[in-house]
Amino acid sequence: MRPSMHPAAQLQFARIVDEFVRWRAISEPERPPAPAWWWGPAFEVRGIDVKLPRHWCRQLRLAEDATYADGAEVLRRALAGQTVQPWPYDFSRMIDSTDSDVRDLHVQPSDDSAFPP
Q: pTM value?
């Protein structure tokens, strides 16, 4: 039986593939470390034997019959061996991220007791 693909996992992986392509377009000496937030989507689909869309295969430099598991391996290799992870601001300055606005939100207090009178 084939593993199923949750729509949320597919959407998140699509965002990361787009970000990965823009990241890899930066020349290697100027490229920031791969961001840690790629780990989650990469591990979530690491065992999914569903074919990737063809344009993702090309973007990830994979064969046309590559699977989500193959794409996850590309992301995990980009992260392997890194000893430092960039802060979201450092990464998003170099990458025009579609998700950076969400990651840049600051934590808000749940009530007014967090602010002294």
A: 0.68
